[in-house]
Amino acid sequence: MKLVVTGSLGNISQPLTEILVTLEHEVTVISSDVKKQTAIEALGASAAIGSIADVDFLTAAFQGADAVYAMIPLSFTEPDLGKYLRRIAKNYVQALNTTKVKRVVVMSGWVADLIKSENLENEFNSLEASVTFMRPGSFYTNFYQHVDMIKGRGLMGKLLTLRYSGFWALLTGKTGLLMGNCGGDDRIIFVSPKDIAVAVAEELVLMTEQSTIRYVGSEELTCNEAARIIGTAVGKPWLKWVLLSDKAMLQGLKMAKVPEKLAETLVEMQAAMHSGKPLENFHRNHPKMGNVKLTNFAQEFARVYHQN
């Protein structure tokens, strides 16, 4: 099959490309960075260098494809996250319909249906193709955003924002605490990007006419359990994840000079997770859990942590 993978050589797209090439599919990887071309080709794939903000480029890249994996990288320079997501989603829809691609796998999030103003899934309803919306939990790789803050490098007494799909927190290097309006004993689905890649690969080659939603997870833990696993791996077993009120979270984000509308969206996302509704939806769909546990990832995280 001729398959197109967006997301360059990111945490999901690289292992996804490796899986698809191993299965002897013809794979094209879209990247905005020309420096990635050599690495993409080394994996056995072709590189298409351009921007997903360019509809003409996308249309050319999708020409003749049997299936496309479509993801939209989060932008933290955009003051209105929802507007940005909808704009890029519309680019995808236009290019996919023009090229008559029959199978599309869209990266979404496990709170997507609960954040109506930011639900990019709605933008794909006009696709003339079968679609699977991937709804993964909170990525293990989000913890990489914490390295400097866990070490307290120049952050004594300072609250800074952390970012990534479904995982927003505040961390103070002075006390070794994770903080957010989702935290403490709230139960979260965590997931390895490698397990997501396996699931996406399965969906891409499933040439069904049905549109579906697929939840993806690797392990269910409380926020404090996850913090303790990561903390133990780096020699800080006291690491805690403190639950803040929505108001305190919003104030912290504003202090960190996060644009107001974006800050409100981040608080809404965490509030949805704190409500437990995403977890209910996850279990209602009876997804098969992946194989990579947080303790496995924590060893990988610790190596990176101690190298910095």
Walkthrough of the structure:
The chain is of the alpha/beta class. The protein folds into 2 domains: 2-137 and 192-217, 3-Layer(aba) Sandwich (Rossmann fold), CATH 3.40.50.720; 140-188 and 220-307, Alpha-Beta Complex (UDP-galactose 4-epimerase, domain 1), CATH 3.90.25. It has helices at residues 13-22, 37-42, 55-62, 81-99, 147-151, 193-204, 223-233, 246-255, 260-275, 277-284, 294-307; strands at 2-5, 26-31, 46-49, 67-70, 103-107, 130-136, 138-139, 160-162, 169-172, 177-180, 187-191, 212-216, 219-222, 240-243. Strands 3-2-1-4-5-6-12 form a 7-stranded parallel beta sheet. It is globular, with a radius of gyration of 19 Å. It starts with a strand and ends with a helix. Mean pLDDT is 88; it is low at 153-175. InterPro entries: Ergot_Alk_Oxidoreductase, NAD(P)-bd_dom, NAD(P)-bd_dom_sf. Residues 7-113 form the NAD(P)-binding domain. Pfam families: NAD_binding_10.
Helices and strands, with pairings:
Elements: E1 2-5, H1 13-22, E2 26-31, H2 37-42, E3 46-49, H3 55-62, E4 67-70, H4 81-99, E5 103-107, E6 130-136, E7 138-139, H5 147-151, E8 160-162, E9 169-172, E10 177-180, E11 187-191, H6 193-204, E12 212-216, E13 219-222, H7 223-233, E14 240-243, H8 246-255, H9 260-275, H10 277-284, H11 294-307
Parallel strand pairs: 1-2, 1-4, 2-3, 4-5, 5-6, 6-12, 7-11, 10-14
Antiparallel strand pairs: 8-9, 9-10, 11-13
